[in-house]
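Example 3.
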Amino acid sequence: MNSLILRVGSYVILPFALCLSLYLLWRGHNEPGGGFVGGLIAAAGYASYVLPRGYAALKRVLPVDCLHLMALGVGAAAISGVAGLLGGTAYLTHAWSSIGSLALGTALLFDIGVYLTVLGSILTFLGFFLEQ
Amino acid sequence: MTPFALIATGFLATPLVFLISRQKLVALAALLPAVLFCGFASYLPDVASGQVVVQEVSWIPSLGISMTFRLDGLALLFAMLITGIGTLIFLYASAYLHHGWRTPRFFSALTVFMASMLGAVVSDDLLALIVFWELTSLSSFMLIGHEPEKTEARRSAQQGLLITVGGGLAMLAGAVLLGSAAGTYRISEIIASTATNPLTGATASAIVILIGIGAFSKSAQAPLHSWLANAMVAPTPVSAYLHSATMVKLGVYLMARLNPALSSAPLWTPLLVTIGTLTMITGVILAIRHRDLKRILAYSTVVSLGTLITLIGMGHPIAAFAMVVFLLVHALYKAALFMVAGIIDHATGTRDTAILGGLAARMPTTLIAACLAGLSMAGLPPLLGFMGKELIYEAALLSNMSLIVMVVAIGANACMVAIAAVIALRCFVGRPQAELQETVQAATEPSIRMWMGPLILAALGLVFGLLPGLIQPFLVQAAAAVQGESLPYTLSLWHGITPMLALSAVTLVAGAVLFFNWDLVQRTLNRLSPLDRWGPDALYDRALDGLMGFAEWQTRHIQTGSLRYYMSVSMGLVSTAVVLTMWLSDGAVMPTLDLDGVGLEVVLPFLLVGASIMVLRSRSIVQGIISAGAVGFGVAVVFLLDGAPDLAFTQFSVEALSVVILLAIIGHMPFRAPDPRPAGQRVRDAVVATAFGLMFAVVLFGVVAIPFDEALSDFFRAASVPQAHGRNLVNVIIVDFRALDTLGEITVLALAALAAVTVFYSGQHIVTRRNNGAPAPATARTATDAL
């Protein structure tokens, strides 16, 4: 898969895909998007970058191990629910605070967890195919 | 200490025992059973005077589940045997075993066994009893397999586990039946409720048979007896403790415990007496056929267990008393004799009765223990065994059993006399065979820890025989628990000239005749050995082989390892099942065509069908991938047009990723690889795929035809912004309303990736190891390149 077009193209694709994925993650609560789609798009960006360069190139653009990424994701999602427990309600009842019209809550942390898990697991799977 | 505290101490002390037995201070571990023994002994005066100690421990209070412990005569008799003999066994084992890495595991398993055994006999709850019961099976498995490098030990451990746990399953079913019939799982309440309305009919028979199977498997009744003899590969302390004195009596205990509740069932007496008598006959024949001390003792244990089951089945009050007395007698002498066998084995390196002899001069203390235990086993006055045997005869005479039972009982007791003589006399008196002369000359008395156990147990048989008043009130209470009513029994050595005395004399003469013709009888019975091929032990092997064969057969046919096969089968089955169900329940609906307001999207279905046909017809992998991608993008467009932008987004991303990943794989494959499937296979795959798609269409038509229930959508639409501060319903449901589901899903995703990592790298590991040392540089790249 060592094609020049893909090599050069993915230079551009990767930052765009990452920005798009973060944008989708951020706006997901109100507009179409969310952690799952965001994770998929980020993974697609990394995949297009890795495809012509080999799996080892992933380390240059992603300083974290894929397994750690998954662990972080599941951990963030699990921890986001503790706020509900501390507030005396059921686990995973999200807490909210508003800054002006912007409502921020532990739901965002949960969504980030989903994003990281999806990204980590897809890159892990991708590793097998590229390392063969 | 309360009964619960005593049992809990047993379990909690296991790590301590583990630590102690790593040192050379193993003998200290015997303090644990000794403490527990004293704890239980403190209840002796109360229980002997007829009181019952009941303790309720709340376990899961929110569910109303509590554990009840009940200490009556029968439970206390067992508890004291378990802890008392346990103390001596711990001491004995500390000298018997070579200290090594296995020692801590051995003593831990022994401790867990002891605690589970105590739990089983003190629990008043039927289900708790079963849990403890299974724990004893597990620890027995560990102990039989003490030397797992021996094939025989592995086989015997597995056999013991499979038979007793299999029986335990039947027993669980019986216990559930009994519990629901009586409306409670408390044994004392079951007994109380069956006293007013006894169990009848098919339920009663089913309960008796199912619980019977469990008890018979545990207590080695014919034809489930073979595991007990094979369990003799375990170290001798285990044989003495688990496989003669305590664990194998658990089945007897359960039958005795449930006797008041189940004896009204018509099947009870015939089943127990038949199985018990058969077991006695089997045990006698097999005991005589063997030369190995431990095997002889094991089969004589089988005889005794058969006797105990028969006595419970007789249902006569005196039989219950005889059962309790004989239980104590047997535990005392059999544990002692096993320990003697272990001492002999230790000193001479053999347990073969045909070559042993002349040890009397070398081991006088062991001789005394062996003789006392042997006299009790033979049932000679003034030992406790004599009273036990008289009571068995009295029970058989009074309870109007058929003559067969009487004859079998006499035969079994005569055999006991002969076996006792073989062990106590053959090994110690007379001359050893020539090859063993020097060994016997060099044999010495073992350490005090080893001879103390058998000596104390054997001496107790004499003390209780001379002073039966010591244990009589206690045993009366134990018999009352078995019989369900308290009756005044008496233990005494001399009843006057009675039929029982005459029967004792007959037994003794028959036993003596058998002893003096031992070799002849043994040779005669060994002519039967061709029959072993159809014996239960061989049948067990055949059943196991059959099971393995079946597993292999079905693995070969169901788990072919071909992904394509799995997918065709699952898709075909699902399609058939769904379409059939919808057809039979008239759920299939023809859609009504509504073309109002349809614009450009009318082209989409044709594109999708066209792309699908391309997939089916594609000749190369790349063509297939691209066509399948086109189908996916088409579906995504449908989502987008029908107001599901989130779904469309996801579908687009998944499709894009699939293409990327598939291309990554393609990089490692021949680029224009032709489809390897033969033509017939392609047609079959096409049929399955089409059927699957049609099935979905039918389901969707059916679903759309049902009026849509707006309740959930209304709720989410109304609650989304005020409760979850979000306008995107899909995302709000994912991260907030159903967040726990999502957490589960991402965990599954992460675990799947982890599992894949494990499989992937372990496969590489195997490849590298195979390549190690092999001159194959071309294939040796895998692990290093990948990692």
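Chain A touches chain B through 52 residues (CB under 8 Å). Helices of chain A lie at 4-27, 35-50, 58-61, 66-80, 82-86, 106-131.
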